[in-house]
Amino acid sequence: MFLPLSLAIFVAAVVVLVWACIFVARDRAVILRQLWAAAVVEGLLIIQTVSAAVVLIVTHRDIIVWEYWGYVITTLLILPVAALWAFAERTKWSSVVLAVAAFTVVFLQWRLLQLWGA
What we know:
Radius of gyration: 15 Å
Organism: Jonesia denitrificans (strain ATCC 14870 / DSM 20603 / BCRC 15368 / CIP 55.134 / JCM 11481 / NBRC 15587 / NCTC 10816 / Prevot 55134) (Listeria denitrificans)
Protein name: Integral membrane protein
Number of strands: 0
Keywords: Membrane, Transmembrane, Transmembrane helix
Transmembrane segments: 6-25, 37-57, 69-88, 95-113
């Protein structure tokens, strides 16, 4: 994994998290721009996944493969599921769902960096 890309994902996910938390505090539903921001994070996650797969195929990393890919797959799935849920739920709870999903991405990025560096 490339540290600059991981940091970009981390920062973008924190932006989505803070934005969603502001909407929770204001008792507002998710808006389309927030979902587009989550889509940008998802795009960065896809780039990270492809690059990590290439590095793992080309070189040998001493990591627990099933654990690493479990985190990667979870990270890839959490935002699209949250976006679908937020799109269907038009109350403040859609903002809560997006905030929880963004927090999960932030946490899993931190955990992936730990696994990659171990």
